[in-house]
Specification:
This protein is α/β, with parallel strands linked by helices. Helix 2 packs across helix 3. The longest helix has 10 residues.
């Protein structure tokens, strides 16, 4: 499993929200970086990241709430397990509908249509 973090930045104050994305391919990685994703995990249909991969990514993001953006329904299990193991931050799994152009539905973030996990 290849895990790629955004370029190292000086220690910044803790943010309210951070994002971990599971992505495959340089093109999608570049798009997620441009959108401000804090941490990228390379994975997909046959390269599912483990719960440990998810936990390590969450730990690297300096945010109160970390949204995990899985790119495949098979990855949701590992993301859900990681969410249940996180103690010092809120872990959230946002499901993307469609092929990269879906709607992000964050739970309990105060957005219309949000769901509790």
């Amino acid at each position: 499993m290849v895990i790629r973090q955004q370029e190292s930045k000086p220690e910044e104050p803790r943010k309210d929200f951070g994002f971990v994305a599971v992505s495959i391919g340089q093109g999608m990685n570049d798009i997620f970086r441009e959108l401000g994703v804090d941490y990228l995990i390379e994975g997909g249909q046959t390269m599912n990241p483990s719960t440990e991969d998810m936990l390590n990514a969450i730990e690297q993001v300096n945010a109160e709430t970390v949204f995990i953006l899985p790119n495949n329904k098979n990855i949701i299990l590992a993301a859900t397990q990681a969410q249940s193991l996180v103690e010092d931050k809120k872990g959230r799994i946002s499901k993307l509908e469609g092929c990269g152009s879906g709607t992000v539905r964050p739970d309990d973030a105060g957005y219309p249509g949000s769901e509790s996990q």
